[in-house]
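Build the 3D complex.
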Amino acid sequence: MTQHTLALDVKDLSLSFQSRTGRVPVLRNASIDIEPGEIVGLVGESGSGKSVMSLQVARLLPEDSAVVESGDVTVNGVSTRSATPRQMTKLRGSQIGFIFQEPMTALSPTMTVGKQLALAIRRHRGGSRRGVREQAIAALDEVRIKNPDIVVDQYPFELSGGMRQRVVIALAMVGNPSLLIADEPTTALDVTVQDEILKLIRQLAQDHGMSVLFVSHDLAVVSNLCQRVFVLYAGEVIERGTTRQIIDAPAHPYTRALVAALPRLDAAADLSPIPGEPPDPRNVTEGCIFAPRCPQRFDPCDVKPPTMDLRGGHHAACWLHAREEAHDAR
Amino acid sequence: MPVDEEPLLQVENLDKTFVTKRRGGDHRTVAADRVSLAVKAGEALGVVGESGSGKTTLVNMIMGLERPDAGDIRFRGRSLTARGGSFPYGEIQIVFQDPRSSLDPRMTVRSLLREPLTNLPKARRRELGTEEKLRELARRVGLLPGHLDRRSHEFSGGQRQRIAIARALVTRPALVVLDEPTSALDVSIQAQILNLLHDLQRDYQLTYVFVSHNLAVVRHLCNEVAVLAAGQVVEAGATSEVFSAPKDDYTRTLLAAAPSLG
Amino acid sequence: MSMTALAAGRGIRRRSGTVLRRLTANKVTACALVVVVALVIMAVLAPLIAPYSPTAVQLAQRLEGLSSAHPLGTDEVGRDILSRLVYGARISIGVSVLVVAAAAVIGMLLGALAGYFRGWTDHVIMRAVDVVLSFPSLILAIALAAALGPSLVNAALAIAIVKVPVYARLAYGETLRVRQQLYVRAARTYGIRSSWIIRRHVLPNIRSSIIVQTTLDLGDVILLIATLGFLGLGAQPPSPEWGSMISTGWHYLIDQWWYPTFTGLAIFVTVMSFNLLGDGISDLLEPTSRD
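Done.
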């Protein structure tokens, strides 16, 4: 493979939160890579560190409490580790766009949609007042808002949840970012609205050659949208691969359990829940992080498994695949 | 099961309109428009709908928290809406979506479990509220006896929902209304709770009305389903039939929009 | 049931640090706490601490300066100022605690009733609250105390009446919030009486914001009592109430400076430390500043 610039390259990121009682690790040696134009899912349950990961990409975590122990985040070849606050602000505006679960948190309740868009447009593109309004309407049109010339003069509270999320997406797209980070953007929405927003994200990614990091707890949503998936468990990426590999042939017992725990539309199959709950990050076991809940746990699991290459870009951190890998190497 | 068996819960032609006073004319919201449903004993009826479909109003009317404008709700053949009639407290219980909000954070699990008994006749309250019964119930939903002395804010979301389920079962109800009981939970925890609900239905001969926007979850737990849109039941029937051959356009849209692993 | 046992062990969170340790983490709050505790001890043990009776008149020793016999001097009829200040702490702190407690309890109940039942209960209670709150509290307290007649009890009553609406409004807002919680809705599905719901759910869950408000109010009420005393509407002579002591003492500011100065200092230190402690406690209890 030739050396090329990744849209996002998170390398061995370890991050802890400083608390009164000491440092609590939330990410351990987590790596994520996204090719230009690729839509990648980051799947994990609450407390897995998936939101922390997405925020750290743009260094949006409070720097006094979030301590990077090791590793680096590179966006389009630019390392964020050594970037100055000013460089980060510029990077956030022009390279990285953000959308969140609750659109109201990203919108100002006291400003019309048009005014908020205008502020963003003038910051990124400059331009006259007159042209800015036209651009704002065009931006709303691009996120498939019907009657953009009316919505532009409305306040966020006058809009439905789905419309608000579209406005947030329009705001994120103003700087024409090369990477869109979407943190559970559809969780609070109805199924039919969720479907429309997912289609919109896919369309925008295609039209602009934009990469997307889609963070979600919902494997079904991720599998419908993403080309590749990273599975995060208790701060560690325990498996990664193409969506089909992850869904059809999950290699890590946790991913397998996650797939088996998901109710299906096509048949009322029995669910196999994962016993127990995720570990307390303050005291995790020495060996494999999933071992305490793992149905296939065996002796080697006392030692932390390395990430094993299962071919075709499929990787899993599990001793069950040690033999296969050794076999392949021969 | 004989065909002519009377349903445990029968909802007939419920109407409910909310009027909010505004400048320039009152605003009317139709929350229920001739809604009819029936659940036989031992069954699980899924009520599917998106926000604004009237799900919450329907739940409130079944639970006696709101009166319909017209129509009737009958439980074991007795009308719940007739004036002067008393609500069969303890026979119909509810589990809410968000256990963070449905459990008073300042109460211990023991007093939370006893709370639904407050209004029952003294003899029944004594009989159901014994320490032994509470421990057994806690064990049955997957809690430890020691948990009874803790306060609900000390528990994770999944465990809180177990507490909320135990609390619904403490009165030995015939009907349990489940209002989005797993939508605030992680997938792996959701599966635990769904399996628990399934087992409890069998062990305690429960009848469920399961309200949800998640079609896959309804498919998993319910044998009957009713699709609600803008206060109307647009389609109802056996879950397998409705899901495999939907007749209504809205049901089809809903099914197409639902994310699936496929 | 190993799976559930595992679930059991994990989900439980622990609170870190005791309340006292977290409270004293802030140095200013810690100092205020020490002063307040000292003042309270002084008030409680006044007969043991005060070298003289606060009302023992010794005309031969009137208006004496600082000496070992009278560390803070004597007043115009020869009473020991230190002893009067020590006993005065009893009045200021004791009465203000009673006033704040009464206002908090009554206000909390009124606010909870208005917020829970809404409708006409809400209208009657909250409109009355609005009327009281539309007057400046000091002016209203003076007017009420004057109307009731000058005495410590009437001054306390006047201040309590002025303070009740503050708590009623706070409790009202909090009750509206609690009322939205699903546990209130759940309780209604059990057919539970409103009085039970208010007692078991509403009051316990609005209590902490009321307590925060009381800690912020204590200093204010101490000052109000002193003000009414100064104006002659509160405690009557020969009671060693600080406000009334200043009202006679300030005539002597030029020649016997210690008389009004130490009395004023006592009020200043007390109000200041109660306010600082109140700020510290509210920082600790207010949900917004938690975590």
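Chain C is about 70% helix and 0% strand.
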